[in-house]
Request: fold
Amino acid sequence: MSFREKNRHVGIVGIGETRFSSHREDVNQPEMIREAVKDALDDAGLTMDDIDCVVHGNMELFEMVHQPDLWHTLGTGARGKDAFRLTTGGTTGGTLVGAADNLVASGMYDTVLAIGFEKLQEGHTTGGITNMADPLWARKLQSGALTDSAAVKAIAEFGADRAKRVAMLYRIIMDKHACLNPNSHRAFGLDWDQMEDLMENSPPLIGDLRLIHMCSQSDGACAMILSCEKKAKQQCDHPVWIRDHITVHREETLNLCVNHYPNETTHRFAARHLYERNGITAPLDYFDVFEMYDPSAWWGADWIRDFFLLEGDEHYRLIEEKEIMGGGKMPINPSGGVLAANPIGATAMVRVAEAAKQVRGNAGPHQIPGTVNHAIASSFGGTMWTILMMLEKELNW
Amino acid sequence: MKNSEESDSYIIHGKLALPYTYFAGRTGSTFLTTLRDHRTIMGVKCTTCNRVFVPPRQTCERCMADIRSQWVTVSNRGTVVNHTVIRYQDKHLPRKPPFVLAMILLKGADTPMAHILEGVNPDRVEKGMEVTAVFSPATTNTLLDIDHFEPVAEAP
Ligand SMILES: [Zn+2]
Reply:
């Protein structure tokens, strides 16, 4: 895989998020987007005059409104500006940041505004996801957004008892994080002693995936402003630098079950390549925080191993010893992650935004203790599309 | 007039039911007509990497070779390589829950295909279980001309 270093450094100078909720009847789509855009501009101390290009994205099939960018200028501020529209499923938000990163690094634009949004309450998410499948071979034979493939794999490897406990422990940890984040859509106040009850009584969806394990359908928007090094230093005292990003995907069904192809997941593949080309040999030691796109507790628990290139049950021990909480070896999703809020077109961007806020040290009540110098954020979409975004506090690599 | 910060907000309810067509292509069509007319399942073989794809495809994902003319017949029998139990109900699902969706590797094929598995307690499905295709009594001109798979009865 060929890879070139950027033409110039790119810094994050503005971050905006709406609160996430299933009740945003008070605003229409562009009005909700405007909240995030305004928040990002205010955060950066900029106006739309400073923005050279707008990149906009969501999953339009979810709301049954096509090409919303055509009339969303009311909220995006894109009137008269160069603009792009992107949609890549769950990874949309990560693709938006990646595109903005490339647009700035290339030298085409000095300052780019990336916007991801979704109003899942307006549509039918499972209907939308069902329609992503190949109409000829798969549309009538699939389970939509829900899968328990990670549960099957984990139970086969670690036994039902340990695997189910780890998944539920991960779920409760994420809820504890979500309770600290004022933007959370779902923050239940779960406690450790509810483990057994939830493992038995949360409604079953598919295989061993239960309702409590799964992410929500949320409304919300996220906006980020990226600038070239020169502009970023003028605009902002402490830009967060995007050191590198990687995006990979494949057709998953051919790879899932039979070992005809190397069975490395796209997560591990992406992580391995990203770390290799940046000289990171011990990612678990190097990074100070990880914002992961974790659509379910089963996936979240499983994927830690791939993202940090761990072996055996190292990822399970991180969860069991609660090392993924603030102050632990590798704090994961101080924001509560996707289990706390999933406005799909924004979700992956929120991971980057939240990781960047942790680097800045001003995430709010869910800021983790200690200095965050190096952060990583992941995006996920079906079928196994992975994006990893590497953030740095200092421009010193 | 109420202050707009306190007033309720309308929700516009609508429904889109959009018909669509999807062109199966010659490769997909050959598979479907053979299934319909001869109750035979066919795949295509990549002569570069020797993999047999079921359902068929015009190109090999790995080699990007054109494999459309390399037809091979595979068995109606195969083994379960993975499965899941659908426990929730929704309109798009092909059966009432609980039911089993399995990845089935047919004898002679190198890629598993997803299909419904019946005739077995959902909690008793095992990897490696031998299954056979049960054809639909009336044709649908889709992959559902295989109505479902079921376990091969054990020899007495
Ligand atoms: Zn091949």
